[in-house]
Write a structure and sequence with these properties.
0% helix
Amino acid sequence: KIQWRSDLFSMNNSQKTFSSTWDRYGVDLSYRNNLVVPGYHYNVDHNVVRQSVTDSVQSSALYFDEHTFYLQNGSSTNIDFDLRYSIREDKKPQNGEIENYSKSNTTQLTLAKSFENQTINTVLIYRKLDNSIIDKTEETVSSRVDWSGTFLDNHVRSELTYSIANSQELK
């Protein structure tokens, strides 16, 4: 079955010296079935603070558009997984205007499996970030593995986390 979810937030605030707008919305469309759930998520967060007299942009907390395509496990699988690919464009205030700042492409895989008294989770992330202002590209690879287990009728609980990250600026 097809599932549609959406959210919306909008704020407009005017003072003597500045005006502020903040628009945030998201749309998620997915197809739910027992094996795999394909989906698409569009997320927008635009915040702008302008000087009232000149109408120039003074600041911005967040200003981005993001497209995410994903595959998740269905209800009948015995392992939890979530594979995502995101394209995000960020902007920031420059010279009184909102201008392009960066564009990132991120691939993320999350896997989780529960056994009788143990759980293991892992997250693998690859991100390529193109910074428009300083004309640099950075690639990042990171991962994390979490294990937890209980023993002796839940009297003893043990947890282990291993995390690693690596990044490189291309020349």
